[in-house]
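B., you asked whether I could sanity-check this one before it goes into the benchmark set. Here's the sequence:
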Amino acid sequence: MQIDYLKKTIAQKIMFKITTTQNQNSLLNEVTITNKSLNIKSTIYPNLGASLQKLTKNSIEIIDGITNDEKGLELYKNKFNSSFLFPSPNRIDDGKYTFNNKTYQLACNETALNNSLHGHIFNKRFKIIKTEATEKSAKITLSYSNNGDTIGFPFAYKIDITYTYTKNNLAISFNVVNISNEEFPFGLGWHPYFKSTNLSKSTLNFDGTKKYNLNEKMIPQNEIQIPFKTPLTIEDTFLDDCFLIEKNQTIFKTPDYEITLDFASTSNENYLQCYTPNTRDCIAIEPMTCAPNSFNNKHGLQTLNPNETFDWQINLKF
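And here's what the prediction gave me:
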């Protein structure tokens, strides 16, 4: 009996644990995932588009998220920390597009450039529909349904996002279902910022030779050669670019940690947006299924028929 008790005690110590916290401002409600033995802690905000706002390993901060207060909410509105991008990652020029011979006008939330930016689920309230914590993993599934009443995107859909935590990996899985009675266009993306205590000495590595040349509105025009070779030691490089990469893998290495992003794509090309804020304390590394302005240029654009589903997964190895 004593041996069984010891086994149970050890298992309890190394198990993943999932807790939920309700805050006065419900936008700041949290789902926290911990494993004391592995020294992992992570936080998801269901009512901020199911976004990931904390990921630490061995007390090292990996994700640059928001604080749990009004200041954090204001930051999220401007920086889109770890937001999920659907149905259109990045920008749509003037918010206008034509699909199946119909013209649509999206809301332009990037007022300075008059673009529609980052889709419309980044601020939606997701329902927690499943949680599961075991000795080896933790899994949380969150769901959002839209009845087709979004300005410029009158198509009904459901999207489920599942986080699966294991020892050194976070898998984020997406399942999109068309619940309308007509086909619609879409793309998916993720907008995480990764912390670095010394960005200039951090390196970014991916397999690709081309990026998009952008106009004054940050809209892709044509493909040009990347003006550097990878792996890139960032030093004083400023990035705000979409790269066409040949393999669905990106590696980011800082003086404190190293991560690998693997992401699947059903298109012939893979897309990666990278951005270095002026604070120079983090970098946005954004896997996407399509290019910016894909509703117009069709680069990587997906379409989904009624009752069809689309699956995509990102693996963050840390």
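One thing to flag: The two ends are 38 Å apart (CA to CA). Otherwise nothing jumped out at me.
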